[in-house]
Amino acid sequence: MAHHDPYAGYRELTLRGMILGALITVVFTASNVYLGLKVGLTFASSIPAAVISMAVLKFFKGSNILENNMVQTQASSAGTLSTIIFVLPGLLMMGYWSGFPFWQTALLCMSGGIMGVIFTIPLRYAMVVKSDLPYPEGVAAAEILKVGSHEDGAAQQGGSGIREIAAGGMLAGLVSFLTGGLRVIADSASYWFKSGGAIFQLPMGFSLALLGAGYLVGLTGGIAILVGILIAWGGAAPYFSATLPQPEGVEMAAFAMQLWKEKVRFIGAGTIGIASVWTLLTLLKPVAEGMKMSLRTLKGGSEAPAERVEQDLSPKAMILWALGMMLVLGVSFYHFIDASHISGGLAWLLVVVCTLLASVIGFLVAAACGYMAGLVGSSSSPISGIGIVSIVVISLVLLVVGESAGLFADEANRSFLLALALFCGSAVICVASISNDNLQDLKTGYLVKATPWRQQVALIIGCVVGALVISPVLELLYEAYGFTGAMPREGMDAAQALAAPQATLMTTIASGIFAHNLQWDYIFTGVAIGAVLIALDVVLKKSSAGKYSLPVLAVGMGIYLPPSVNMPIVVGAVLAAVLKHLISRNKNNVEGRLKNAERIGTLFSAGLIVGESLIGVVMALIIAVSVTNGGSDAPLALNLANWDSAATWLGLLCFVIGVIAFTKSVLKAGR
Question: Are the beta carbons of 478 and 93 closer than 8 angstroms?
Answer without folding.
Answer: no
